[in-house]
Amino acid sequence: MSDQTTQRHPNILFILADNLGYGELGVYGGGPLRGAPTPHIDGLAAEGLRLTNMNMEPQCTPSRSSMLTGRHAIRSGTYAVPLGGVPEGLTQWEITLPKLLSDAGYATALYGKWHLGRDDGRLPNDQGFDEWYGIPRTTHETTWLTSPGYAPELVRPQHIMEGRKGEPSRELQVYDMQERRVIDAEITRRTVAFMEERARGHQPFYLFTSLTQPHFPTLPHPRFAGSTGKGDWADMLAEMDHNVGEMLAAIDRLGLRENTIVIFTSDNGAEFIKPWEGWAGPWRGAYFTALEGGLRVPFILRWPGQVPPGLTSDELVHGVDLFTTLATIAGVAIPQDRPIDGVNQCDLFQGTSAKSGRDGLLVWVDNRLQAVKWRNFKAHFYQQDTMMSPPEKLPVPFIIDLYTNPREEEGKRASGWVLEPMLKMVQAFEASLVEHPAIPMGTPDPYEPPRRCP
Known about the structure:
454 residues, alpha/beta, Arylsulfatase, C-terminal domain, 11-stranded mixed β-sheet, 15 strands
């Protein structure tokens, strides 16, 4: 691509943490309070936009699916973390952001956690990425290898893998506790090397750097173990900030700062499993719930000359919006043959509007519509305080004003009039499912939507 084309198509470095709670980073009230300052990530926020009401689907697989397709995971059959036994992840029918960008001339890569399919045909190099390196599933499987009774002939251990578009992916080493400590350093190294290669060729890139920290077991790299003197969690936080700093330094060194969008966020709310539980700051709850601590995540975006530095917004945004917004920025067409739930947030992100492109959002936990957010109000249809708690259907919705009841505690109910605009959102979504039925979880490829009678 020519230099002029590259200017029209900004590079995108998308850094995704795994189970990083809202309150962990210094700029979100954590940092030193969690045992380690985060100067590189905090500095990134000072140079761009910071959202305080960024919402994700509250599990790893659904959130990644929704960000990459612009569709709520309930539509794609990816609404829960897969447990095996059926085909996992996205069907080939889905159109991902890297597919769109690759067709537009972008170089695309994913380094790190995938969790949207474990077998060839559903790995990153089958879903629009030119190349990938990382783990197909998730980090807690490293704990299996040392658990009583485990044997690899019974359940094959997860391997770190790599692959290129048009070729089968290959297994590298077993993803064990030792590799768990060092994988994010390798993800960072490959991220920097990819940017160096693209900079030499003047080709725009979309780089999805999907870190594995702080997902349990939260174990820092040996170089950082003991570095803070405040435990593994603080050491991990210092390591994460260092790795982000390495990527940002490479962007500056390569002269890419002015034409590179950098995003840092998390796939869902705080880690829940003890002794590695995270912190959601002012919010209650953790992932796998519809509580704010499971939905709200840190979100930082820097784009010099396009996004004003020091911009902060509490407007409502959802992870599905990233598909639509980044596709619009890159100048690629949004698919018209399927429902797209993401809205274009360019005006909000660039500071030309103080208002979000959406008034509300729907919250699924697994395949349950568990809550609705509209403006500063929220309605819970189920009671569920933790991922281990059974969801209990409420006889009447629990309606709250998040300004006056941010902890979502009983005893502070809001007026029921807000249900009317909320239920209009639900009805519109349900109508779209009649027109475009959801893909059942476990659907094999090839998939084609059912034909409707004329």
